[in-house]
Amino acid sequence: MRYRTLGRTGLRVSEMFLGTMTFGTDWGWGAPLDECRKLYTAFVEAGGNVIDTADKYTEGESERIVGELIKQDRDRMVVATKYTLSSDGTDPNASGNHRKNLTRAIESSLTRLATDRIDLLWVHIWDPATPIEETMRALDDAVRAGKILYVGISDTPAWVISRANTLADWRGWTPFAGVQLPYSLVQRDAERELLPMAEAMGLSVAAWSPLARGVLSGKFTRSTPTTQHTRVRAEDIDERELAIARTVDAVADELGASSSQVALAWLRAGRPNLHVVLGARRLEQLTDNLGAAELELPEDAIRRLDEASAIELGFPADFISSMGGFTYGPVGERVDFTDRA
């Protein structure tokens, strides 16, 4: 596995992250400790060094398991967790991105993880009720206190992230180094605003649900179902998703790879700032997915997958593109514009 720096920081992170929403059985479908240990070991042996959890995953059990697993090689691992989601449905301040919840969440996560610092703390989701200035200043204070080292944000509009990092730059606060979002052949809407924003601002992208809840694993399109874990029912999948999955299957058969490996390799192709978040419940799933790190898709395969899953960017991107001649006049076709994004 290869490594890249996280955003505009010097932190070296593996091209794949190990997602741990499946760690723990509290939610009824996750993996017990012994299986989690196998997953963690396989990931580390493959060269992975980022383990991604959240305080809400399996109601805190995931963080406790991660804390147990990293004890022997804490300094080698980049431990990432998240905060925002409610820890007490009766307390209005036990959720959100305000300073009080951040302070509580950090201390609770440090206890469950049995560590003295969090390497990467993600804001789990945008909280419109909390001014972004409060969140950024509170995060910066936690960095200065040594409680956390780097910060990122998940599931948030591009304009909010842009504003947050602009404020951080102006005021000398710690900026977001990465953004976490859902991205796959089935769900490409991040290409409209979030991915261009991340590229322009130098942010790393952590793509969660890269197999679209198991749809792209071949589970629903091959005659012999795979062992890929999914909580999705066949009746919940539409024809577009199935058509994309069949294209993935066809490419996989031609290359002698698994469908999951092809879907994951497509995400990596031509996206140097993108990291795939691998989530698995069984060792064989993770082992197969890790094989995508060695798979380079031919240009024709990438083109076929692009075409099968293409989306309309919509306004304003499509409108701006269509107005080139009107905007720049006939001479615009003879101007080599520099990309200043």
From TrEMBL:
A Pfam family assignment: Aldo_ket_red
Domain of life: Bacteria
Gene3D superfamilies: NADP-dependent oxidoreductase domain
Sorted UniProt keywords: Oxidoreductase
GO CC annotations on file: cytosol
Residues in the signal sequence: none
Alphabetized InterPro entries for the sequence: AKR_Detox_Biosynth, NAD(P)_OxRdtase_dom_sf, NADP_OxRdtase_dom
Domain NADP-dependent oxidoreductase: residue ranges: 16-309
Residues forming coiled coils: none
UniProt GO MF annotations: oxidoreductase activity
PANTHER family per UniProt: NAD(P)-LINKED OXIDOREDUCTASE SUPERFAMILY PROTEIN (PTHR43364:SF4), NADH-SPECIFIC METHYLGLYOXAL REDUCTASE-RELATED (PTHR43364)
Protein name: Aryl-alcohol dehydrogenase-like predicted oxidoreductase
Organism (species): Krasilnikovia cinnamomea
